[in-house]
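ARCHIVE CARD
Drawer: 12
Card no.: 0347
Subject: one protein chain, sequence and derived structure
Cross-reference: see card 0346
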Amino acid sequence: MTLGSVILGLLILLVVAIDVLVTTLTVGGGGGPLTSRVSKGLWEVALRIHRQRSSHRLLLVTSWIIVTQTALLWFGLTWVGWVLLFSATESAVVKATTQQPAGIVERIYFVGYTLSTLGLGDYQPQGVVWQIATAVAAANGFFLVTLAIAYLLPVVSAATQKRQLAVYISSLGGTAEDILIRAWNGKDFGQFDQHLINLTSQITLQGESHLAYPILHYFHGIERSRVMVQSFVVLDEALTLLQYGVKEPHQLDPAAVGPLRRSNAAFIKTIRSAYIEAASENPPLPSLEPLRKEGIPTVSDQEFFAATKHLTLRRRLLLALIQNDGWTWDAVASMQTTNRATSLDDETLIDDVVLH
């Protein structure tokens, strides 16, 4: 018996088991150590290529590769671990008809159909120890497939909810200024506070979904009105304008603004804990001038700048969030060239889809 083969096989199986259990069964624990590192590595490689030669379709394909590789990585490493175990001794697996020891290819084949619980029977374990090991391997494969399916199917549903929320926010406006301008009715912000109340629970759900399904962070969108990262940043910037840029008599009830602001902060902390670090530069503040042109009472630029100084880290994290998704700050800041809500307006043809 080769002790090294046994130790290495058991080590691989242990690492995979820990990664699967942490990823699929822990609530708020994020991804397992293996899944997190591989997913992050694939995304960083795709981002480097994207930044050299812009390709959002590459990021889109990479996001689906990350989803599928999670299950494939678990199954592939489990397969390797059991092959090492069944290769520890020559007599572990034999051909059923001749009782001759199986070669390495036959052992790979034997482990494969054992993990998939097919049980073809042309090769079989030799001895009680290896018969028990075969039963354990079959159970291992069954639970692995079950947990992978139970984990990945809700991810698709969570990704749909993510796009749905992005479109909801985009329907309110394409930039921070645009959201407030569209809500302004000439004297106040009307029923805009009802949208903020509705969004609070949805943003909270998104934060918890990213904890439960870490690979959700890597889902990339091409049509910008459906990109959650952009919608989230635009919404948070709109709240900054509303809270610190609009004169106090015209601000909304703090009971509507405050909970959403704090839900946004919780979401940022969730993303920061696993995926991003604050950018080294400050993104430009949203302009108050478009609001003034629409008759919305605002504070002076100097007052706005002074009131938002404590938001430096928060806004650097927002910039990092945008950059980590393969975009630039212009994607959320410019009303003239990249207004995300334009494609949803009545005067825009339905088949006019702006991808970039």
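Annotation on reverse: Confidence is low (pLDDT under 50) at residues 352-356. The two ends are 60 Å apart (CA to CA).
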